[in-house]
Amino acid sequence: MKLYVISSGKYGSRIVNSLAEMGLASSMVGLEEIPDDLPEFIDDFQQYVPKSIPTADLILAVGLFGDINMIVPIIARQSGAKSVIIPIHDPAQVPPGLQREIEESAPEVKIVFPKPFCSLEPVGDTYIDKFAREFGKPKLEIEAGNLIRKVKVLRTAPCGSTHYIAENIEGIPTEEAEQEAGNKLHNYPCNASMATDPVVGDTILHLAGYQVKEAVRRAVGFAMKSAVVDPETCEADECQHECIKHCPQVQIGMDTVTLNEEEQAVIDPASCGCCEICIQECPYGSIEMEEKKFIIE
Ligand code: SF4
Ligand code: SF4
């Protein structure tokens, strides 16, 4: 796979270096660095399109803020790439209106905007999926009894944090591993924004934490905490599905809250980030946080 990378700022450099160290250097056919002090609104972004663009299969644009992202579909077209990943680590980076503009300017190109990058999963596109098999939403294999014995990384966050977390949760009590994975992500440290994203109602940093906690929960086969819906009081046909509409995990594409056959909300304890937003939003007071062992199939 020929990967062409467009990078800007500290976040961009960190991702590029980390991907190169984790084995993608030989796939990179080019790297274009965009200055990180450009204005958010640009009339003539054409001037920033690189003069020489290699043939590529996949374009990765990391760390670009605002209108400069409009060069990405132009570069894709000139490189022949039909697949583009524009990860979002900050709410101000690529707002929904700009996402639509980018997509509409290149309808023949598959463009994904994972928010955060470590929520990327295969989407049915040859090259995005090839990338997402190794990099994106963390996936782990864990050997454990009462303690975590061995952790194998099956898919790592593109910043490399999953390897760091995997090494640092070995030896700790298994029931504490999901919480500890979240703490270790902050220690690494995760570079996603601490500002609340108005689209998802939570911070992108928190969303990154939910992804790695989910990886641990799925690998050990249980979660220690989750929001739970009371089916006796859930009135989903009356409430416009407030919990589904406001769950930040659902907003970024996860099936964390769904409706069952009785049309009542059900929360998946594997991916619930325990943010409590659904508890505040449910007009019937039907959701509570529970701390117990939830077995994950
Ligand atoms: S607590 Fe509710 S809103 Fe938050 S992640 Fe879990 S299900 Fe979604
Ligand atoms: S749990 Fe509350 S917000 Fe969610 S569907 Fe049921 S009544 Fe509506």
TrEMBL record:
<dbReference type="InterPro" id="IPR017900">
    <property type="entry name" value="4Fe4S_Fe_S_CS"/>
</dbReference>
<dbReference type="GO" id="GO:0016491">
    <property type="term" value="F:oxidoreductase activity"/>
</dbReference>
<dbReference type="InterPro" id="IPR003745">
    <property type="entry name" value="DUF166"/>
</dbReference>
<feature type="domain" description="4Fe-4S ferredoxin-type">
    <location>
        <begin position="263"/>
        <end position="292"/>
    </location>
</feature>
<dbReference type="Pfam" id="PF02593">
    <property type="entry name" value="DUF166"/>
</dbReference>
<dbReference type="InterPro" id="IPR017896">
    <property type="entry name" value="4Fe4S_Fe-S-bd"/>
</dbReference>
<protein>
    <recommendedName>
        <fullName>4Fe-4S ferredoxin-type domain-containing protein</fullName>
    </recommendedName>
</protein>
<feature type="domain" description="4Fe-4S ferredoxin-type">
    <location>
        <begin position="225"/>
        <end position="257"/>
    </location>
</feature>
